[in-house]
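tool_call: predict_structure(chain=1)
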Amino acid sequence: MVAVARPASHMRLMRMDDLDVVAAVEQASYDFPWTRGIFADCLKAGHPCWVLCVDEVVAGYGILSIGAGEAHVLNICIASAYRGRGLGRHLLGRLLDVSRWSGAQRVFLEVRPSNPLAKALYESAGFREIGRRPRYYPAKDGREDAIVMAFDMAASISP
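tool_result:
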């Protein structure tokens, strides 16, 4: 088995001037993407919004909602050109750290059953399936359920 080295990267808070790039990555990654306006609203609302940069290029982003001792991963994405290099795990680790620093006891997320790579990443990081939301996501042939997953801060170590 050959280990894939993660490229040199850094993370920083998302800024308004990142929104065009973030929205372009989102558009290229999903059939039903968030709009630029949704990302702008997350920034305006004060949600923790992070970008992961490789050679000063935005290669991914993650957005949390935090409150009442809980956090929710609202969106996490790595641009297709940067996938398979451990960057998603690295970004997820930062989101879990931010959740912990903010006092969250549990972190939640939803994932599509049709996205087994993301589900496997979340499971390997310590998330466990706790339920389903029927017909949660739009899909090409109608609607798709969401798998609801949770990460317990007290029982887990961030990836």
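agent: The first helix runs from residue 19 to 29. Proceeding to next step.
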